[in-house]
Design brief:
Layout lengths: L1 H7 L3 H7 L4 E6 L4 E4 L1 H7 L3 H4 L11 H13 L3 E10 L5 E12 L5 E10 L5 H21 L5 E5 L2 E10 L1 H18 L3 E11 L3 H14 L3 E5 L3 H11 L5 E4 L2 H11 L9
Parallel strand pairs: 7-8, 8-9, 9-10
Antiparallel strand pairs: 1-2, 1-5, 3-4, 4-5, 6-7
Helix pairs in contact: 7-8, 8-9
């Protein structure tokens, strides 16, 4: 590695490395710095002669920090990206950096040194950290909200369909039910088909579902459910009082056929 760096020093490779906006340091197998670009000198507040020939430990916050960085490189299989640590300048100032580094091996796989890129960065201030945390919280809420509702639409006059997918707990089902009831009351649906075939539903939802079924009945609509899980059916049965308030079928195809029959339509195959 020493010969290679010496061969290119003063040539195109050196010009390329010196034009890099990040500090670059290369070491031999003993951890001695054999190459440094101009940004490395600037970052560490040292001249080239003060870096070349020194131990890489000199630019880390401490011996322990240098060993920890080397350990992480080994654990990562020889390469790390954006590891946060601190560089110690000649005056003793600690500068936060993100390090990307790799171990170098010869053709026989023997370790011969390493090269690292040290990118200076400014840590978040307290106020910035609070804003960032709040943004992440809002993004999480927004992402969660995408799955809160379920599509509600009318296939034909009198027949409303709601397709529920994903994980459904009591809170989410209450949101789905509120939107569904509002729609049914607005369009005066005669039949409401709720498709649960693609949903994973908690048994606790049974209480909310029984209220929806009874409310729909009072609004003059019949509820048809497709793909109700067995556990939910068992939990729902004692809560309804009269199981005839709801029609439950195992598949969406059968439930749709039943729903259309209830409003006077029939599905028939072409001759």
């Amino acid at each position: 590695m020493d010969k290679q760096l010496t061969t290119h020093r003063g040539g195109h490779l050196e010009a390329l490395l010196n034009g890099c906006p990040d500090a670059i340091l290369a070491i031999n197998a003993e951890g001695i710095i054999k190459f440094a670009n101009k940004e490395a000198c600037k970052l560490t507040e040292r001249t080239m002669s003060e870096l070349i020939g020194e131990s890489i430990i000199e630019v880390y916050e401490s011996v322990e920090a240098a060993r920890e960085a080397n350990r992480k490189i080994y654990q990562a299989g020889g390469t790390i990206h954006d590891m946060e640590c601190k560089t110690r300048t000649k005056s003793g100032k600690l500068i936060p950096v993100r390090v990307s580094a790799s171990h170098l091996c010869d053709s026989n796989g023997k370790y011969i040194g390493g090269v690292g890129y040290f990118a200076q960065y400014r840590p978040w201030s307290g106020a910035e950290a609070d804003v960032k945390a709040r943004l992440e919280e809002l993004e999480a809420e927004l992402e969660a909200g995408k799955g809160t509702a379920a599509p509600v639409f009318d296939i034909c006059p009198g027949l409303t369909v709601s397709v529920v997918t994903g994980n459904v707990d009591t809170r989410r089902f209450e949101d789905i039910a509120a939107g569904l009831l509002e729609h049914v009351e607005k369009v005066r649906s005669c039949v409401v088909l709720i498709n649960l075939s693609s949903a994973v539903i908690e048994d606790k939802v049974a209480a909310s579902l029984s209220r929806v079924i009874r409310t729909m009945h009072l609004l003059g609509a019949t509820v048809v459910i497709a793909g109700m899980p067995k556990a939910l059916a068992r939990a729902l049965e004692p809560l309804l009082g009269d199981v005839r308030l709801v029609k439950s079928l195992s598949s969406m195809e059968m439930a749709l056929k039943e729903s259309l029959n209830l409003i006077g339509y029939e599905i028939s195959k072409k001759a």
